[in-house]
Every structure is written in structure tokens, then in C-alpha cells.
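Need a sequence for this fold. Nothing fancy.
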């Protein structure tokens, strides 16, 4: 709060002006840094998004709460748009829905977290904000993003359908989710062990020599490629065709439109 009060107040008009402006900046040492060609390209490529986010109230209004709520709203709207475009892209290519969800949709909706972690890694003195942003975001996705819709759907199901011995409650088939979750868990544990090893070898989760940073980046990207590759192979039935992992496949949702469509044999 004190940091916000010390900063110069900015108006809505100035936010739109800053979104359109591209000029040399001043480094922490006071030196003038000219605009690089890549900076100019990124600025003009993202100027539409900058103008959209300039709608967010300035941080000095209502102690920053208006800016906070507005920023969350804009991020949610942009994530929704990116997710819809990713779904349409996967549909136009004829890619299975589970594969689209773990690749294009997940990549598009995780870009805000990626840039936020990158900014935190550059600006903060330690790696806690960069890594905490990732773990905190995934906690919200898992606990709130799954929990709240599930609770709402379960209450709606109870109010609409009568419970029977065949259908005792709310149920949605999981499909190949068990395999993806098991694979993700194994790769996540591997990632955590890798970060712990870096703490002992390098002295921290981030930093190190140029070769060490590049090798760490390549290894973590490899984990993501392994997850996408094996999940895709399983979704298309190339490997581990029976991936129920204890899920009762005979149970179906009481609303027929929520059940997977039966596959028709090819002629």
C-alpha cells in the first residue's frame, strides 16, 4: 500500500497514452536504453491487448481494489477467449478433445502465469514469487476450478434427478483422465526433485551458468513434451488402451448429452 501511495498517480487517459507510446527507457543505473527491434515488434503486435487492459482502473482508485478486481476480470476474459480459440483450432484440425485440452487449451490459458512468473523471476531477489505463482495458480485450478463447479453440479443434479440404486448420485465419466493425472504426478515429482537437486548443486532454483540455465530449461521443456506425447498416444489408443485405473466405466451420467458418444464401427 505504501508503494502505491509513493508512486505518481496516473489517470485513465494517461494509461491509454502509455499503452500506445514506445520510447527509450531509463535503466536502474540511470542510462538511457534505446528501443530494440524486438521490443518494437512486440509492442505493435500486442498494442490491441494493451489498449484493452488500459480499461482497468488506475491503481490509486479505492486503494488498489478496483485495479485488482478489474485485472482479474480482464485476465479471466482473455483466458476464456484464448481457450475458445484453442478449442476451435483443435476442432478444425480434427484433434481429439482430450488432446486439445492438454495441449492448445492448457498452453493458451497458462500463458498469463508464464509471463507473470517470468516477470517475478526478473524483478525479485529470490525465486519464491516465480515458483509460488505456478504452485498457487495450479492450486486455484485444482481446488477451486474443479471443486466449485463440481459442488454446484452435484446440488443441481440432486434437485433435478431422483436418486435410484442404479444412479445413486452425480457421476461424470472420466475417460482417459486417470492416465493423464498419473503421468502428470510422476513428472511433477521429477520436476520437484530436479529443483531440489539444483538447490544443492547450483545453490538455488534459478540462476547458475549459461549452460546450466539452458540445460535446465531443456530438461523442464522435455518433461512437458513427454507428458503431451504419452497422453496423446494413450488418447488415440496407441498405448495402454485400457487406462480406466479403477474407474467404473459402466456408470453413466443421467443426462444423456453428458455421456460420451458410442463409437460407430467403420464400414
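Here you go.
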Amino acid at each position: 500500500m505504501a508503494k502505491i501511495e509513493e508512486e505518481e498517480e496516473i489517470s485513465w487517459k494517461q494509461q491509454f497514452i502509455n499503452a500506445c507510446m514506445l520510447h527509450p527507457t531509463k535503466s536502474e543505473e540511470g542510462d538511457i536504453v534505446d528501443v530494440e527491434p524486438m521490443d518494437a515488434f512486440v509492442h505493435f503486435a500486442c498494442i490491441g491487448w494493451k489498449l484493452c487492459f488500459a480499461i482497468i482502473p488506475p491503481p490509486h482508485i479505492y486503494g488498489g481494489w478496483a485495479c485488482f478486481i478489474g485485472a482479474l476480470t480482464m485476465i479471466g476474459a482473455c483466458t476464456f477467449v484464448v481457450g475458445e480459440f484453442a478449442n476451435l483450432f483443435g476442432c478444425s484440425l480434427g484433434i481429439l478433445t482430450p488432446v486439445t485440452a492438454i495441449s492448445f487449451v492448457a498452453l493458451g490459458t497458462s500463458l498469463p502465469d508464464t509471463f507473470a512468473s517470468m516477470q517475478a523471476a526478473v524483478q525479485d531477489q529470490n525465486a519464491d514469487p516465480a515458483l509460488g505463482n505456478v504452485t498457487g495458480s495450479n492450486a486455484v485450478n485444482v481446488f477451486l476450478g474443479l471443486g466449485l463447479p463440481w459442488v454446484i453440479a452435484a446440488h443441481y443434479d440432486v434437485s433435478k434427478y431422483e436418486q435410484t440404486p442404479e444412479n445413486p448420485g452425480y457421476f461424470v465419466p472420466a475417460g482417459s483422465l486417470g492416465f493423464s493425472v498419473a503421468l502428470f504426478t510422476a513428472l511433477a515429482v521429477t520436476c520437484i526433485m530436479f529443483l531440489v537437486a539444483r538447490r544443492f548443486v547450483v545453490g538455488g532454483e534459478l540462476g547458475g551458468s549459461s549452460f546450466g540455465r539452458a540445460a535446465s530449461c531443456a530438461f523442464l521443456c522435455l518433461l512437458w513434451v513427454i507428458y503431451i506425447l504419452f497422453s496423446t498416444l494413450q488418447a488415440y489408443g496407441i498405448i495402454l488402451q485400457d487406462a480406466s485405473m479403477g474407474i467404473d466405466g459402466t456408470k453413466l451420467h443421467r443426462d444423456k448429452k453428458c455421456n460420451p458418444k458410442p463409437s460407430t464401427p467403420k464400414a
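For context: Confidence is low (pLDDT under 50) at residues 1-6, 263-267.
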